Each structure stands twice: as C-alpha cells, then as structure tokens.
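Subject: Protein record for review, amino acid sequence with backbone structure tokens
How to read it: Take the token row as a discrete description of the fold.
Enclosed: The protein record, placed directly beneath this head.
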Amino acid sequence: MQTTLSPFDRFAYRSQHWSFLIQATLVQEAARFVSRIPRPELSVADLRAVLRRREELHARDLANVDAGLYPRELLFDIPVGRYMRALPQLLRDTPRVVRRKRAGDFRDIPAVDKQRYPAYYRRTFHWQTDGYFSEHSAQVYELGVELLFRGTADVMRRQIIPPVTQFVRAAGGAQHVRLLDIACGTGRTLHQLGQAHPDLRLYGVDLSPAYVRLARKRLQDLAEVAVSVENAEVLPFADATFDIATSVYLFHELPRTTRRKVAREMFRVVRPGGLLVIEDSAQLSESAELAAALHAFPAEFHEPFYDDYLKDDLAGVLREVGFEIESSEPQFVAKVVVARRP
C-alpha cells in the first residue's frame, strides 16, 4: 500500500536530519579539540562523494515510505529522550576512551569467561569502555553510533526492511513468517522491523548478555519477539527454522574465517527459498569512491578486521556457502546484500 508523504513531512524529515547533523558535528569537533585527536584527511572529492551518498540515502528513505515498504512513523522514530539521558554518560566517558586509544589498550575489558567468548570478541571495539561486556556500554551504544554516522545509523539500518516487506507480501502476510536477527545488539533493528511488520515472529541473538538484557527491555512492546545470548558461529536452532535471517553491522568485526562460519550457519537455519538480508559497512567492491574514508575508519577506531573486510566482498562470501545473490547495493557508507537459499 502506497503512502504519499506531505510537503510538511518532507520538510520535517529534512529538518530533523540537518539538526542532528549539526549537533553531532559540534559534539565530534568539541571532542577532537579537547582530546587533540586530528581529523582524518579527506580530499574535496572524497567529501563530495560522502555528501552525495548521504543525500541519496535520505531520498531512498523517503521513496521507501512513498512505496509503502515501511511506515511513515519510522522516519521520525528518533528516541530523543533516551539519547539525551545517555549523552552525559558518553561525554563523561570520553577521557577514558581517549586514554585507551592513545595507549592502544584494546584488551581493557572486564574479566570474562575465555571459554565462552572467542578471542576476536574480547577487545574494546571502537575503543569503547568495557567492549561489549557491560551495562554502561549497552546504554550508550546506540547514541555513540548515531553520533559517529551523524544521524544516519537508523536510516541505514532500515534499508533491510524493503526486501523483508516484499518477501512478506509474497508469502501472503507476516503471521507465520519467522525472522532471526543475528547480532541483534540492543535490539534497534528488531524494533524497526517490528514497527513495520507487527505480525512478524521475531527472534534475535547476540553474544553480549548486557546488550541482550537491554534489548529485551526495549522490545517489551512487541508481541512476538524472543532474544537470547548465543554465538552466531554455532546457532542453537534446527536446520531450516527461519523464513528470513537478517544481520546488521556484524561481518566487519569478524575475522575472515569466522565470517564464513557465520554465513554457513545462516545458510543452515534459513529454509530453502528463504531470505537473507545483510547490512554492513561499504566495501571497495561497490564503493571505491569512498576508499580514503573507508581506510581511515580502522585507523581512528579499533577495528582490527576491517581492512581485510574491505576486500572480502560480502556477496562473494555468501555465494561460497551456497546462497544465490539477488542484489548488492550501497547505502551511504553501508551496503545491503539480499540473497536466497535455493
């Protein structure tokens, strides 16, 4: 069902994103000034490419609502109150993050069970305090990501919804469709999926107990959702359990061999004819114009597997394990790969 956005809707949408862009830029620049961390060097052409792709993302977001692929409400679904409560925590934590970055102390995490958590996971991704192992980390994560992407993180996340909507329509409705979100984090992607398709039977797994606890709290308003602590390399589900599997921002934080283990598990738990939708960072295969910005990212943040990820095309990884690729498209500084299990 198509929805025509009003001129006021479009104005309000653009206004909120310009406001978030300005405020996020001020926060980032203030943090750089205080910490004396230099800004990555990007050429005028690089900046133009980033701005053009940002505009294309916003245009697609509006077009998806016009086409009825997800509801208008998602355009304005920004948890401002939650972000305002998290901002003081994030700002107070900044000196610790800076010290950790300067010292290169990526092992600065709480004591954890080394048998339960793989070595690649036991580190301070993004130099964030406690890595993925504390309530504090979970509480500030969503705001940190939105500030990093200057208000476009949720916009990029919901670009996985259109292929899900098309699959649901072809299935005759969402009532009996099971969807698994792998590495669901604090549940933001599941929240958007639930708002778009309230009848979907939603499941989420993540390796962080702290993030799963917060996801359960934030998803209480959804009738059909279950979230559990699991390792994506060894999912606890029978073969062909799910009609759809999704994953957002997981693969760039995995070593090369682990990417393939997770992809094989996705193939196993999705039924024949089922859908897989993955969103992650852009890669060189489709975003060579962003090469300078992409290569600058792991230099500024602790992302030890990112340089390898840039060259390890996601569509190729999925083909290796048996999926058939339907599309692979850039979405600002991300990409969305849609595939089917034959």
Summary: The radius of gyration is 19 Å. Residues 153-340 form a domain with the Rossmann fold fold (CATH 3.40.50.150).
